[in-house]
Each structure stands twice: as structure tokens, then as C-alpha cells.
Amino acid sequence: MEAPDLIHADLSQAVWRKSSHSGGNGGNCVEVATNLPGFIAVRDSKNPSGPALIFTPAEWKAFLGGVKLGEFDA
């Protein structure tokens, strides 16, 4: 299987959903698209036409594991 081109990822078919941890107050909201073949995209919901972060499935799994373990709690 060929690795996805994460630099030129096509987000035109992305189905964005808001994080369950984002508040409903219009504040810091993150959206994720997991329906894209070979990668996961993350963006700021307040700037939907702005840049998105692109992760491989392995990177996304590692990130979520770190979140669940509290590695990013400050």
C-alpha cells in the first residue's frame, strides 16, 4: 500500500465533527475528519478555511493514547 501524501491531502470530501470535549460556548473548538483514506485531519472550527493538521492513523492513535493517559495535562 502506498503511503498517503500528507502534504497535499485533499480535504474536499472531509466530514468534520466537533470534539466531544469542545464546549458549546463558541470558545476553543476542535473538529476532526476521520473519513479520509489514509489520514486524519484536525482543524479549528472557528477558522474552517484555515490550515488543518494531518495525521497518519498511527500518529492519531498515539496522540489519543497520550490524551487518555494525561500526557498533555498541564
Task: Offer a concise description of the structure.
It is built from 1 helix and 4 strands, in the order ββββα. It is an alpha+beta fold and 74 residues long.
Tell me the radius of gyration. Answer: 13 Å
Number of alpha- plus pi-helical segments = 1
The strands making up the biggest β-sheet line up spatially as 1-2-3-4
The total count of strands amounts to: 4
Form type: globular
* pLDDT averaged residue by residue: 86
The unreliable regions are none
Task: Spell the H/E element sequence.
Answer: EEEEH
Q: Strand count, sense and closure of the main sheet? A: 4 strands, antiparallel
Proportion in β-strands: 15-25%
Structural class: alpha+beta
Task: Estimate percent helicity.
Answer: 10-25%
* N-C termini distance: 39 Å
Task: Describe the model.
By secondary structure, the protein is α+β, with helices and mostly antiparallel strands. The protein is 16% helix and 20% strand. The protein has one helix at 57-68; strands at 17-18, 30-33, 40-44, 52-55. Strand 2 (30-33) and strand 3 (40-44) form a beta hairpin. The model has no long low-confidence stretch (mean pLDDT 86).
Blueprint of the fold:
Elements: E1 17-18, E2 30-33, E3 40-44, E4 52-55, H1 57-68
Antiparallel strand pairs: 1-2, 2-3, 3-4
Key terms for this structure?
globular, 4-stranded antiparallel beta sheet, 74 residues, alpha+beta, single chain
